[in-house]
Write a structure and sequence with these properties.
Low-confidence stretches: 1-50, 157-170, 388-400
Order of helices and strands: HHHHEEEEEEHEEHHHHEHHEE
CATH class of one domain: Alpha Beta
Distance between the termini: 190 Å
Helix content: 40-55%
Number of strands: 11
Number of helices: 11
Strand content: 15-25%
Oligomer: single chain
Radius of gyration: 64 Å
Largest sheet: 4 strands, antiparallel
Structural class: alpha+beta
CATH architecture of one domain: 2-Layer Sandwich
Length: about 400
């Protein structure tokens, strides 16, 4: 260096050697209380051969650093340039340490870290904590949140939800054809989260667009197998369950690395252009249901009553049949008994039968019975209004 070749300075140092030993030196090695002329400055004593303990320790540290890096750092130069080389090597070592520290990263409990080596997948760090990977350009890391529930809105755009993405698919994409060839306007939400960070990042190009397209096509397929009336009323829950299962199946086939948590139908309505006609059809169907219910109620009332009356008539007929049969059986047995008596005593039986018959015939008539003991005397009968008010006691009855 220039100041190392200054001969005047060497002479001045020789002349003032005794005074330098007695005085205290400043950091640059110049004695305090220098009597040199104004403007003559002492140069730093960098090129001197003396070394203190700090310099020796620094040399040892550089030597260890060179050994650690496999001799990539050149050895320090002695002589006049040794101090400047130490500074350069120390700076390089500091830069290497800082560069190595850039490989430190943190994985939170809700995160996974995906490490790449020259752009190729190496590993996934799933355990939370402080991690290290080789600094750029050797390795890189991508941190993925695997616990946050994300939303995709199909059929409408919503800013009311705290979601990672909202999809406004447009009116034409929210219109779907039902199984009975009607059109419905459907809005629904897909709730999902990341299951496998590696598959989510590298198996498909745009995961959220893929989920959105899978959700729309799946719902279109489910609605295409359902009639409009169940879709508007009691089939909504089943539609949600079927859509979730089919979406998960397709995404697993794509290795999307996501889990579908739920599918929520927000709105299932007929299109605005035909809503009046649809409401009229609905009113007609409601009227039909009312009339059907009335007819069912009338049927439920009249049929049991008719069955009861029919059963009553049947039972009456059964009773009459049994009565007639029993009476006929009794008459037949009585006739047999009379016949047996007639065979044993014909006259007595004939007279008894005659009397019983006349008694049966005349039991409700007002009669006058005359005997023949008066001979040829004309009897007097007191008649009023052509009816006999009294009768002559029968004294005797003769058979005719």
């Amino acid at each position: 260096m220039p100041w190392n070749d200054d001969s005047d300075d060497h002479r001045d140092d020789s002349q003032n050697q005794d005074s330098s030993k007695k005085s205290t030196k400043n950091p640059w090695g110049a004695p305090q209380g220098d009597n040199r002329p104004h403007g003559h400055h002492q140069r730093p004593d960098w090129g001197r051969g003396g070394r203190n303990d700090d310099e020796i320790n620094f040399e040892q540290m550089l030597h260890k650093i060179r050994q650690s890096f496999g001799g990539m750092l050149p050895p320090s130069q002695g002589g006049h340039n040794g101090g400047f080389g130490k500074i350069i090597f120390g700076g390089l070592a500091l830069l290497l340490v800082i560069w190595a520290l850039t490989g430190i990263y943190f994985v939170q409990p809700n995160q996974h870290g995906v490490v790449l080596t020259f752009g190729e997948y190496t590993r996934t760090d799933e355990v939370p904590g402080i991690k290290w990977r080789a600094p750029w350009p050797f390795q890189s890391v991508q941190i993925v949140d695997v616990t946050t529930e994300r939303r995709i809105h199909i059929g409408f755009s919503s800013n009311d939800y705290n979601s990672s993405r909202s999809q406004n698919t447009g009116r034409h994409e929210s219109l779907m054809l039902t199984g009975d060839e009607n059109i419905v306007d459907i809005n629904f939400v897909v709730l999902w989260r990341i299951q496998d960070a590696k598959d989510y990042l590298y198996s498909i190009r745009d995961p959220e667009d893929t989920i959105q397209m899978v959700a729309a096509s799946t719902m279109r397929e489910i609605i295409g197998q359902t009639d409009i009336q169940p879709a508007l009323t009691d089939a909504r829950t089943q539609i949600q369950v079927d859509a979730k299962a089919l979406m998960q199946k397709l995404l697993d086939e794509y290795r999307a690395g996501v889990t579908i948590n739920n599918v929520q139908l927000q709105k299932v309505d007929p299109p605005v252009a035909v809503v009046d006609a649809f409401n009229e059809v609905q009113r007609a169907r409601q009227k039909k249901e009312e009339l059907k219910n009335l007819a069912e109620a009338y049927r439920n009332d009249i049929i049991p009553r008719a069955k009861g009356e029919a059963e009553k008539l049947r039972q009456d007929a059964e009773a009459y049949s049994q009565e007639v049969v029993s009476r006929a059986t009794g008459d037949a047995k009585r006739f047999d008994a009379v016949y047996m008596a007639y065979k044993s005593a014909k006259d007595v039986t004939a007279e008894r039968m005659y009397l019983e018959t006349m008694e049966q015939v005349l039991k409700n008539a007002k009669t006058v019975v005359l005997g023949n003991e008066n001979g040829n005397v004309l009897p007097f009968l007191p008649l009023q209004d052509g009816k006999a008010t009294s009768s002559v006691p029968r004294s005797s009855v003769s058979s005719q």
